[in-house]
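ok so I'm stuck.
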Amino acid sequence: MGERPALIRVRGATKVYRAAEGDVTSLTPLDFDIREGEFLSVVGPSGCGKSTLLKMVGGLLPASGGVIEIAGQAVNGPAAGIGIVFQSHVLLAWRTVLENIMLQIEVRKLPRDTGMKQARALIDMVGLAGFEGKYPWQLSGGMQQRTSLCRALIHEPELLLLDEPFGALDAFTREELWVVLQDLWLKQKFTVILVTHDLTEAVYLADTVHVCSKRPGRIVRSQPIDLPRPRDIYAPEFVSLVRSLKENIVEVRAA
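replied:
not stuck anymore, here's the structure
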């Protein structure tokens, strides 16, 4: 079998912010592809433009130069086939778990019966069964992010964008949600871009890890992760790979 086709193509993409004191370059020209169904993690020091890149791919920020294409179409704004999860759950306090998840169906004017069936299937998959009628303030942080994942996936997007979705959670809950996310991805095989500071998280989940330099950001290393799934974070080869990527980031910060 041949290699999966590229879903996303980034060619010479840059980002420059205009400021009163002068232009600030966030990202220098970036060139890379993301294959259909690939799980990509982007890591690097704070302020290197990781989240900016994610927002550019999602059409939430315009690129200052170059081209970003999804399925052959230039990104000129938010696309219908994208789901996004941020570090903050951004759930509506006056809506229950089920109602928050179904919001995507309402906004996109999709068939309610089909959406309800998909919502209940996702709720079962992420371990929220029995909490459908709870409100966000009645949930733990991990349950809030499980709800956010369901809401992002209910319309079956081809691309899921994750901006440090587990960064505010405790270590135990974070690792629990890595397994939940991986199970969802293995079953549905959507394409994923995950921005994270957590190298263990990146290596556990990704097919490929891009390491970015400090600002202005550029990709200084692209590391395929060939370890079999499910991955053992204590296995010597896993620990060695995490250590190697960490050395890259330390070098980047020192440069």
